[in-house]
Amino acid sequence: MSQEPRPALHAQHSAAPALLQVHDLHVHYPQGRGKMFQALKGVSFSIAPGETLGLVGESGSGKTTIGKVILGQTPATSGQVVFDGQDITRASRAQRRLLGRDIQVVFQDPVGSLNPSRTINDTLAEPLLAAGHRNRGENADRIADILHRVGMPPDTAQRYPGQFSGGQRQRIAIARAVINRPRLIVCDEPVSALDLSVQAQVLNLLNELQSSLQLSLLFISHDLSVVRHVSRRTLVLYQGQIVEQGEAAQVHEAPQHPYTRALLAAAPLPHPLLQRQRREQWRAARAQQGLV
After folding, report:
1. Contact in structure between 107 and 113 (CB atoms under 8 Å)
2. 65-95 in b/e burial notation, b at 16+ Cβ within 10 A?
3. Contacts of 5 (CB under 8 A, 6+ apart)
4. Domains of the chain in sequence order
5. Distance between terminal CA atoms of the chain?
6. What is the 3-state secondary structure (H, E, C) of the chain?
7. Which of 199, 170, 252, 229 is nearest to 217 (CA)?
């Protein structure tokens, strides 16, 4: 039986200073012959401590590029990324290694994100060793604790990624991301590769960890319905620009921008007839608004 995602519970952070601030971010990619593709066009937002911010858009909207800039994987053309009061827009490799303790990532593909030749214990021990935790007994206890928190059996540490399902591997990937108690996690489409029944379980797990560990999450997805269950606020990205933002429930239930309405109309439904009707509505909405 599938498990319905439980709504995220978030404390109010209006008085708290932002943990992450993105100011007027631009990213341009060269396309040859002197041409440039503008992936991001002046994106600005902030994330408070302990908050989950949803970032929604289709493929090519620029949402993954934002995550890569925050992680230092893609350079910003202009603009600024500030983490805990420190400008990290052009942080050095040494600075990025230190930031790795506070900023982590959960990728879309739970299969490709884990080394198949290493045991889960080795995979989870790596970030602990990188952070200077050398006591084997203490590390073993921390690994056992985090595996328990993500709902994996005690013998998981001695096994290899290929012995687990996709949903279990994503739980292990989440365990790796949170084992050092980071302050911010970039979740880049973390459930899109999973079955619908497993998606709900992983979303509930993220909500539980966010609450118990007081994590801040940037949750990137193409699905507004998914984002609604984990985020307090939602930003909608279209062609490198934020076109709508607000409380997650408000954006989902009463979207103001035609692109947001088109995204909602594109969400899958389990009934074939209803899905066909929704697809027709989606095409009509995009054609009416001139969306490409």
Report:
1. yes
2. bbbbbbbbebebeebebbbbeeebbebeeee
3. 199, 200, 203, 204, 207, 226, 229, 230
4. 15-102+183-248 (3.40.50.300), 113-181 (no CATH), 257-292 (no CATH)
5. 38
6. CCCCCCCCCCCCCCCCCCCEEEEEEEEEEEEECCEEEEEEEEEEEEECCCCEEEEECCCCCCHHHHHHHHHCCCCCCEEEEEECCEECCCCCHHHHHHHCCCEEEECCCCCCCCCCCCCHHHHHHHHHHHCCCCCHHHHHHHHHHHHHHCCCCHHHHHCCHHHCCHHHHHHHHHHHHHCCCCCEEEEECCCCCCCHHHHHHHHHHHHHHHHHHCCEEEEEECCHHHHHCCCCEEEEEECCEEEEEEEHHHHHHCCCCHHHHHHHHHCCCCCHHHHHHHHHHHHHHHHHHCCC
7. 229
Tens of pLDDT, residues 42-88: 999 999 999 999 999 999 999 999 999 999 999 999 999 999 999 99
CA distance 206 to 32: 41
What predicted TM-score, i.e. pTM, was given to this entire model? 0.87
